Fold this protein.
Amino acid sequence: MDYETVAPDQFGASLRGFGFNILVQDVPRSARFLSEVFDLAAHRVSADFAIIRQGQAVLQLHADSTYGQHPLLGLLPDNPPRGAGVEIRLYECDPDTAAARAKAAGGALLQAPSDRPHGLREAYILCPDGYAWVPSRPV
């Protein structure tokens, strides 16, 4: 699928399994952060929307303003962090490289890369909107 040209209805009909729509204050900033820190591919980046891809997995970024009458809009804090209690895990993403890039891209390293008892090396990185991203690889 060409994520740059696919029609919205075709894109929507193609989605399978789990999906994530992440509400952000600045879509281009968030897309740039995800690309620079985690090497994720960003498609169709606009002020309102972006498709983010890692391999075959996709998620969507939406600007707060696109949610209009959506019931979640009134629950969003004016200031980060957002998404407390949710870890967005990026398997097959080098935590050492991501941690080294995080600060320069506007993020915060919440926990340095470490080998964990469950067999993964992982780091915790907060993006500018305050979501916790966890890049990890097998030890």
User: Anything to note?
Assistant: Strands lie at 21-24, 41-43, 49-54, 57-63, 87-91, 108-115, 120-126, 132-138. The helical segments are 8-14, 27-38, 95-102. The CA atoms of residues 99 and 109 lie 6 Å apart. The radius of gyration is 15 Å.
